[in-house]
Amino acid sequence: MEHRATPLPTEAFLVSQEEGGERARTPLPFSLSFFLFFWGGFFVFFFSAHYLSHNFLLVFTRARTHTHAHAHTPPHTQHQNSTSCTRHLKNLNRRWTAYIDTDEFITINEGVISDAQQRIHQPGGVSRLLEELRNDVNGTIQNSDFYRQNRACYTIPRRLYTAVESSTNEVTRNVTLGFDPVRFDTLRYRYRAINATQRYGFCKSLVDVSTVPDKFLGFNQIHGSAHRPFRSLCPSQWVEYTYPVGIHHYIGSLESFTHRDDARKNYAKSADLWKKRAMQQRGGSDDEIRPWLDGFVKFVGQSAAAYLLQGAGVLTR
∠ CA 112-176-55 to the nearest 5 degrees? Predict the structure, then answer.
């Protein structure tokens, strides 16, 4: 597991966590089946299946005083979790919310945005780009009309990054001294499963929760999945990786992949399933997301970054 920074919409996604990370320093008296945090203008919602992500909540409440975290007793289904969280965020007057998993990271597509890596290096890079896209009335950025026309929900294409290893020089390139890149999937794994312009599986969503009608948010309401939470608001979940904003999805090592149970029926995190996906590399490699760590260290300082990222890559229960 790893507290990993993601260059998502703002400072908020500069740190995130996968299955199996640092042990919580203070035990929590309740279980979390999902959790939320707010940092830098975006509220972030993660599903957590059977794994209980206590650390992530603690790290952010310590890291920034204005971090907000909220936990519910687990409802019966992921769909009900989604509805409950969306209702809660709307009541807090929040807006953009990411519906993604803890092994996924929103980033900028360098195939479309020429200065993607410079933007990823800066906190808030994705949110600033989204604002530019919404205001690109002349259509100077590829596919910006998608963001102008869909004001309530963006479906974001995903890429799968496999477990194919890179050379030591490639993995350590531009990594801040004092940090081991092998402990971070976003730095260690560089190979795409399929072509760079193809999406892998269903898209995920960014939703402006302030626009979701109250009639969709009743306690007994069940809507779409994290791929398309509200069908009447979110466009097709079949969007190719040719848009300015995308998601990196990491399969990780065999040890991390099989470390936790999966709440979905008949979807065991088995070695056989990992082997079917882990060695694909048809899409070649890239370093699109690599600048996040150096940017994060510069943003919070070396000592704070080391504190927040200690225990990254350590699998625990």
Answer: 90
Residues 6+ apart with CB under 8 A from 122: 295
Beta-strand pair 42-47/34-39: antiparallel
Instruction: Enumerate the domain spans of the chain.
Output: 3-309
| Spatial separation of the C-alpha atoms in residues 7 and 188, rounded to whole Å | 16
Closest CA to 204 of 159, 244, 266: 159
Which residue reads 């992500």 in tokens?
Answer: 53
CA distance 141 to 253: 36
How far lies 168's CA from each of 165, 187, 288, 311, in Å? 9, 11, 18, 21
How far apart CA 269 and CA 265 sit, in angstroms, is 11
pLDDT tens per residue, the chain (317 residues)?
443 333 333 322 222 333 333 333 333 222 223 333 333 334 444 333 222 222 232 223 223 323 333 333 343 466 777 788 888 889 999 888 888 888 899 999 999 999 999 999 998 898 899 999 999 999 999 999 999 988 889 999 999 999 999 999 999 999 999 999 999 999 999 999 999 999 888 899 998 889 898 888 876 666 667 788 888 888 877 889 999 999 999 999 999 888 866 655 555 668 888 988 899 999 999 999 999 999 999 999 999 999 999 888 888 76
Give the C-alpha separation, 94 to 83, whole Å.
Answer: 14
Q: Which residue's structure tokens are 């509200």?
A: 230
3 state SS of 246: strand
Q: What pTM value is reported for the model?
A: 0.75
Give the whole-angstrom CA distance, residue 163 versus residue 182. Answer: 12
Count of beta carbons in the 10 Å neighbourhood of residue 61: 13
